[in-house]
Specification:
Length: about 170
């Protein structure tokens, strides 16, 4: 590795949207134990990047209404410059990760962070996060909830939208 190439740290921020309630209520409602309802974000270049109903957004790390993350996973380092990364995010925000394409079970914050983690570091996010939608949908109650949850728009406030006319 060239010692002149700067490296940038990449982290995965993990939030439990249920604030611990999934652990208590999932056995009753779903018939199986879920440890949380996960929202994830990538932290790199001093910003937190995530995806929701507004598209790709950023804020200072821990700066959404969710507050500090429940868990931080070190994903590694990247040699990609911030400009290269932002160009990539801008492209994703105009195509694959537009806000109107957000789907709670198939195309969500966790599919975004998984893709971005692979782009930056070659690593994926933990499977217990990416497998959560199929775990929920494999239950009768999950199937009942699906139409309701599919109609919800999720966009944590307190962020800057990256694709949508805001300069990056």
């Amino acid at each position: 590795m060239d010692k002149n190439i700067p490296l940038f740290n990449v982290q995965l921020y993990i939030y439990d949207l249920s604030r611990g309630k999934a652990r208590s209520f999932s056995p009753i409602m779903l018939g199986k134990q879920l440890d949380g309802i996960w929202h994830t974000a990538i932290v790199a270049y001093g910003e937190e990047f995530f995806y929701g109903g507004d598209g790709i957004s950023s804020c200072s790390p821990g700066g959404t209404m969710l507050g500090p993350p429940d868990t931080v996973v070190e994903l590694g380092e990247t040699e990609l410059t911030e400009k290269m990364f932002m160009d990539h995010l801008s492209s994703l925000g105009e195509t694959t990760y537009r806000g109107d394409r957000c789907r709670l079970f198939e195309h969500n914050c966790n599919t975004f962070t998984n893709e971005v983690a692979q782009f930056l570091t070659g690593r994926t996010i933990p499977s217990y996060i990416t497998d959560l939608p199929s775990e929920v949908l494999s239950t009768p109650f999950g199937q009942i909830l699906r139409p309701i949850l599919d109609s919800m728009q999720i966009a944590p406030p307190g962020s800057n939208i990256i694709n949508g006319g805001i300069n990056i």
